[in-house]
Amino acid sequence: MSGYNGYMHPGTYQSGDIDTAGVESCSRGVDCSGFVSRVWQLSSKYSTSTLPNISWELPASSDLRRGDILNKAGSHVILFSDFGSNGIYGYESTTYNAYDRVVYMYSAWSRLSGYSPRRYNSVCP
Amino acid sequence: MMRHVNVLFQRLFIGVGLIFLTSGCTVGQADTATPAVSTPPAVTASPTVEQADAATPAASTPPAVATPPAGVSFPALLVIDTDQRTLMEYRNGQAQQRFADLTEGGTILDGMVVADAVVILQEEGLRRIRLTDGDSRFQSFNQTVRSGALIRAGDDAVIYEAKVDDPQAEFGVGTAIGLYRTTDDSMKALLTLARNVGVLHMTADQQRLFLLPFGQDPSFGTLLVVNVGDGQVLEERAIEGELFATISPDGRRLVTTSRRAASAGAQEEGVLLDYDLTAPSATPQIISLPKAPGHAWRLTWSPDSRALYFLLRPGDIYDEPATSFGVYRLDAASGVVEQVTETAPVDAFLRTDGQWLMLQHSGERRVTMINLATRSSTVVDLPTQAIVVGWR
Prior knowledge:
- The complex is a heterodimer.
- By secondary structure, chain A is mainly beta.
- Chain A contains two helices and eight strands.
- Chain A has one domain: Alpha-Beta Complex (endopeptidase fold (from Nostoc punctiforme)).
- Chain A has a six-stranded antiparallel β-sheet with strand order 3-8-4-5-6-7, with helices on one face.
- Chain A is globular, with a radius of gyration of 14 Å.
- The relative contact order of chain A is 0.19.
- The N terminus of chain A is likely disordered.
- The chains are: A mainly beta, B mainly beta.
């Protein structure tokens, strides 16, 4: 995370290359979980497998508030922003649609099957 | 806390033959666009730099080679010069032989020595170069490959894993998998999957593939066993890990890199998770690492499946360390982790034939060759940007 901060500070790089192990010359990490780690101001990078260790599962997706996540361990995580028609709007670092960066986009509920709505432990419920 | 379950993919999409062109490039023919390069005679006596330059511009700056330990015969390195786009052999720091030009086929993604051939995965297809006579054969893909890798499948075969754009895939990336066999010099597409997977292993009968699905970060949670013939998922195992996973050549062990806290609230430390694939239980053996907090970085098995080699680095696996603790070895039978060398590059690609361990330094024109019997290291400076595909 300190490395990420260092890259971002001078404004030299763009945020949002999902390939942690080999980034493009113009950008420096973050993959989807790295992006959430940064937004949540975590002291180290968490993954979709370890984000559940520092968050709790909401009773229902309708309980989501801005800053919560939709997490699918071993696959992907989306930072929730707003509800939309039959889905949600969120921020995510993704290769979907050849974006290969952080984007704000709509996802239908049908896309979110298997995703767990979660809230960071250090946020008041 | 309720655990959520990943959506299971009971069937993978089969696209046999999809990735290879159905016409225009016949298997078994040498590629007309990239004719075989005649093999100049090996330089055997005191080559001058000028002689090497004339045949091999890549050798304009002779690579420096430390003196190999007494009694150790240093192998000749087989190198893809990515600046000059040639396949070269270097012995004792001198260019010895130029096997083939690689001007066609797009970006070079990976290369590997298999028996008496070098197989090269490129952006536009798969190339085979015979070391005996330099004969070059290229089979085109019908789609540009974004990234990819070659995976050894026994002594005489190699699998390619090619990541391609796929609008139908969940994250826009699909995977084409194929096989090259030296026994009959055949190249064959096996599967095209509408998801991003890594190939970890193929069974000796070449009937089953072990695949690791990836999402949008380096963590993973499932190992798939897939029938090569029809793409059916035969078995699905819950596993755990982040960044690195590797199956032993005998197919019996899966080792992943992961993190564990020694106690509740304690800082997480890097561990290896060792899964016995012959046992029904999915519970791994947790292998702690020396010099905690640290993490294992890049893993490679010895061909006999007796040892796993890796770099040991300080801090968390997502940190960018400035130093390395060295090369370490996990003894597969005892589970003991021991140091092989004290010094090592911070990052390197590892490859071993059981006698030598090669570390190709990341971001540097340099490889370290470690003789595993003597534990002695030899550093070789490469003259250009290069991929060392093997040695002999």
